C-alpha cells in the first residue's frame, strides 16, 4: 500500500510493485456504458426502472435525486453542454417541497413522482442552479452549474489533499481537525468544499479500514465516490479508480486510456477479455501493445499527484498485470498473498479474488479448478453471467 497516480509516468519509481510487466494488450474499446449509474453506490443500469428497483431494494425506500442529460446528480454537477433534460425523481415518497433558485430568482413548488425542473428554469440559463428539497424532517441540496465553469483552483486544494494522503501512507493518524480548519479557510465555493470533503471521506474511510472498522469504512468510501464524480483532476480521477476496484463499481475504469496505470484493470473488469496473442490462448492477436515506460525516479513527479491505495487493491493491480503477461510465477505468488491478506475477508475483495483465480485457471486450461471457482460466483450480480456461461459450457 502507498501512494499511486493514474498516470504511468508518475509511478516510475515503483517498478517492482505496480509496473511488473512489459506490456498490456490494447483491447477493443468498451461498449457504451449503460444509461444511468446509481447515485449511492455507482453501479450502472440500462434503464430508469432497473436503477429505481435497485435503489429501493438495496438502499432503502426513500430517495430523491436529479437526472440531467442522462447523468444522475446526487449533490453537485457541472454541465459544460446545454442541459436538455433535468428531472427531479422521487422514490418511496409521494411529494416533496422544492425551492429552485437561479441567480436572484427563487421559486418554491410542490413536486411529485418525476418532474422536469426545466419548466422552472429560464431557457438558455447560464449560471448556478440551486435546488433545495425538503421531505418530512430531512432535506437535500443540489447544486448544478449550467454552461459555466465555476471558480476552481487546484494548487492549494491539492496541497492539502496530498498532505492527508501522505499521512495514510506513513501509517500516522491524520490531523482531521487541522484539515477541516484549512478547508474552511481556502474553499471559496461549494465545489471546492466538496472536493476537499471528498478526500476527507476517502482518507477517513481507508483510515477506519486499517482499524478494521469495516462498516464505518464502507460508508465513508461510498460518500467519497459520490462526492468525487464532478471532478476531472488527476487526484480525483485516481481516487475514483482506486474506489472502483475497491468497491467493485467498475464504471469509472471504462474511460481509462493506455497511459493509465488502471488500463489493465479496465481490460480485465470492464472488457472481461481473457485472450492474448500467445500460445496459451485462442483468439485473434491484439493489434499492438502498450510499452510501460521505465526509468529512474523523477524527483518532480514522485509524490505530487498521488493518492493512497490500500494494499489489497494494489496487489490486485499487480496480479492483473501478471495475468496479461502470463507471468504465472508472479501471478501465483500474488494470489497466495492476496488470500492471506487481512482485507481478503471483505466480500468485494473475496469476489475479485475468486474471479482472478477462475480466469487464471481458464487460461492455464485447468477447467476443473475454473469450474469449482466459478461455482462460487454463479449468482454474483456482476460476475455471475460469466460464471454461468462457463459452467453451462459442456
Description:
- The strands form 5 sheets. A 5-stranded mixed β-sheet has the order 7-13-12-9-10, covered by helices on one side. Strands 6-5-8-11 form a 4-stranded antiparallel β-sheet, covered by helices on one side.
- It has helices spanning 48-58, 154-170, 176-186, 190-210, 214-228, 234-246, 263-271, 311-325, 328-340, 347-363, 367-374, 384-392, and strands spanning 2-4, 23-25, 36-37, 44-45, 63-68, 71-73, 76-79, 86-91, 95-102, 105-112, 114-116, 127-135, 138-146, 289-291, 307-309.
- A hairpin with a 2-residue loop joins strand 12 (127-135) and strand 13 (138-146).
- The chain contains 12 helices and 15 strands.
- The chain starts with a strand and ends with a helix.
- Helix 5 (214-228) packs across helix 6 (234-246).
- The chain is of the alpha+beta class.
In a few lines, what is going on in this structure?
By secondary structure, the protein is α+β, with helices and mostly antiparallel strands. The protein is 40% helix and 18% strand.
- Count of extended strands: 15
Mean pLDDT: 81
Structural category: alpha+beta
Stretches where pLDDT is under 50 for at least 5 consecutive residues are 13-34, 276-303
Assembly category:
single chain
**SS summary, helix count:** 12
Major β-sheet, in short?
5 strands, mixed
| % residues in beta strands | 15-25%
* Fraction of residues in H or I helices: 40-55%
**Distance between the terminal alpha carbons, to the nearest Å?**
41 Å
Shape: globular
